[in-house]
Amino acid sequence: MSESFGEFLRSRRKSKKKTQRHLAREVGIDFTYLSKVENEAPGFSTVSERTLRKLAGALDVDPDEMITRAGKVPSDVKRILIDDFSLIKEIRERKADDSAGGADE
Predict the structure, then answer these.
(1) Is the pLDDT of residue 102 over 70?
(2) N or C: where does the chain have the smaller number of CB atoms within 10 Å of the terminal CB?
(3) What is the pTM of this model?
(4) Do residues 43 and 62 both lie within one domain?
């Protein structure tokens, strides 16, 4: 994912032919806030999961993708990892296996 969250959000909004004002109204946030998020203004990089889910719905994006592109882990996944921390080891091992498999090709 080389595209920043702000760039991703802007490109999805534009692909849906929505203005910042329209999307902000639909999601229930101020359009100036949306502008600052898209432009990655300092102090505006943290968007609540609730707002991210609303943005995902308005832009026809999978909510998990929207949340992870914003640099967060969905809250239900956090709870699962906290309840069963062994999953973290499984994820790391799988990632290491994927990396090792790609090196041989």
Answers:
(1) no
(2) C
(3) 0.83
(4) yes
